[in-house]
Amino acid sequence: MDITIRAVRPEEHTALGEVTARAYLADGLLEFGEADEYLVALRDVARRAAEAEVLVAVDDTGRVLGGVALAAGAGADLAGAGEAEIRMLAVDREARGRGAGEALVRACVDRARAVPGCRRVVLSSHLAMAAAQRLYRRVGFDRTPARDWAPLPGVTLHTYGRDV
Description:
It comes from Streptomyces lichenis. This protein is of the alpha+beta class. The protein has a single domain (about 5-164), classed as Aminopeptidase (3-Layer(aba) Sandwich). Helix content is about 30%, strand content about 30%. Strands 1, 2, 3, 4, 5, 6, 7 and 8 form an eight-stranded mixed beta sheet that branches. The two termini are about 30 Å apart.
C-alpha cells in the first residue's frame, strides 16, 4: 500500500477526527472513555488546522489512515521558544504497522526545519503508548523527564524531544 503524507483537506476533517478519537478510545488513553471531554478536542480537526499544521496519511484510494498536528505557539501545550510540538498523532488500528505513523512523525520533523527559529521538536506521550514511544526513539527523539507533566490529576505524560 502506498502512503501519502500531506496537509489535511477540509473535507477530511471529520474522517481524521473520527480516526483520532477511535484510536485514543481503542488504546484506552482516555480516562473517562466515551464520556471523556478530550474527545471533543480529538474530533475538532478544524480547530487544530486553524492553530497548527495538520498532516494526514492517506492510502492510494484516498482513505484517511491517520494524522498529526505540528504546533508552534498557538495550539502547543509543551513547546516553548524555538520549538515545535507534535500533537495528537493517531493511526487507524487497521492501518498500523504499515509505516503511516513513522511517516507522519518524520514529516513533522522535516516541516519543523522550515519553521523560522525552530531548533527542536517536542512531544508528550501517555505512559500506555509503548509502540509510539519506540517509534519516537527510532526516529531520534530522547526522553526529557524534567518536562513530564500531568494534564489531569493521576495522568502523567512522558515527554520527548529532538533537535532539527
